[in-house]
Amino acid sequence: MEQFDAIVIGAGAAGMFCAARAGQAGRRVLLVDNGKKPGRKILMSGGGRCNFTNLYIEPAAYLSQNPHFCKSALARYTQWDFIDLVNKYGIAWHEKTLGQLFCDDSAQQIVDMLVAECEKGGVTMRLRSEVLSVTRDEAGYLLTLNGEEVRATRLVIASGGLSMPGLGASPFGYKIAEQFGLKVLPTRAGLVPFTLHKPLLEQLSVISGVSVPSVITAEDGTVFRESLLFTHRGLSGPAVLQISSYWQPGEFVTINLVPDTDLHEVLNAQRAAHPNQSLKNTLALHLPKRLVECLMLLHPEQFPDVSLRQLNSRQQNGLVDTLQQWRVQPNGTEGYRTAEVTLGGVDTHALSSRTLEARDVPGLYFIGEVVDVTGWLGGYNFQWAWASAAACAQAL
Ligand code: FDA
């Protein structure tokens, strides 16, 4: 039977990085994954260019029942450390927006870098491998993989969350946590598009594909200023993905579709200068024309087909409210099928924030998305994967 210092389950972002660093520190590491290639989510990420970190990483950008938990790991392995590594491999990158760093060429470069780092650490990688059972005795952990048994003194669970089952996601990590008595907090899809109730969906179907800058607010007061996209299923775009992590079923979100304009001022000034200009053409200076036409069909009271001279103050107040405080009650989300992340997971109260080791189960570690730490859209989730992996690797 093969004996290792550490077995890492999951060759995703966190698992590969942890295995590589532990290997380079002299540990004998086995990295196991159920897929046929490593880093499948990395390859899909950032539209194939991997948004690998963010310039503005801060603990406030992470959701967790214990908001302090992520601080230690994030402070000890920062975005600058990962940028140094990317630079060392000569991977060209650029900032797209809001501090989000992407590869110039391809996410494959990040996977190749992680594989190279694992090779440098002498990591043994077993792909297409299912973990059939895990037991623990005084010598450590005994794992049954398909057809073979392996042992290690330490076991790292980096098997991710439930999002995108097509990319190998499984509840494995939560099951192991429960097997060893750790609490698992309820999970739900995060960074995910909203679906809409049928009548509204049908009304908005004509503007599928239209994107606008927006400010979106959840009932808990969380606000994001990013673009919003109307789709044939509902609402998407960065603003919606971000707020979805703060939304609970049944709640409303409030959307400002014209966030950078004082609409009353604009309408009053235009009325003084061009009283015969149509409301439709005036609004189309600030919003996509298809959206204006759709609103005129949906809310003929507030958006009458009249000239500015004919628009009365009740109608003007109504249309400004509709555009700047549009309250929408999503029907739900698209769920794990399209979600970028899984909220909830292994309760951080059961883990050390310095090493990610289970407090009551020596030698058992949980890193990356399987833990109840979920970042915003924009490279925050990969930075948590790198940072939690680095903190754990140091302790192996
Ligand atoms: P990850 O999911 O990466 O890896 C888990 C691994 O465990 C997988 O390889 C899986 O096959 C394996 N596994 C699962 N169950 C197993 C079992 N029973 N036995 C063996 N192996 C098992 N984040 C970001 O910061 N920037 C971005 O650009 C994006 N973009 C993005 C796009 C899309 C489409 C998705 C779905 C997600 C993103 N994300 C992202 C989120 C990011 O991908 C995610 O947070 C990290 O991949 C989490 O890393 P982990 O290593 O924890 O899990």
TrEMBL record:
Keywords: FAD, Flavoprotein. Residues 188-341 form the RsdA/BaiN/AoA(So)-like insert domain. It comes from the Bacteria. Its cofactor is FAD. Residues 5-394 form the RsdA/BaiN/AoA(So)-like Rossmann fold-like domain. The keyword Flavoprotein applies. InterPro entries: BaiN-like, BaiN-like_dom_sf, FAD/NAD-bd_sf, RsdA/BaiN/AoA(So)-like_dom, RsdA/BaiN/AoA(So)_Rossmann. This is NAD(P)/FAD-dependent oxidoreductase.
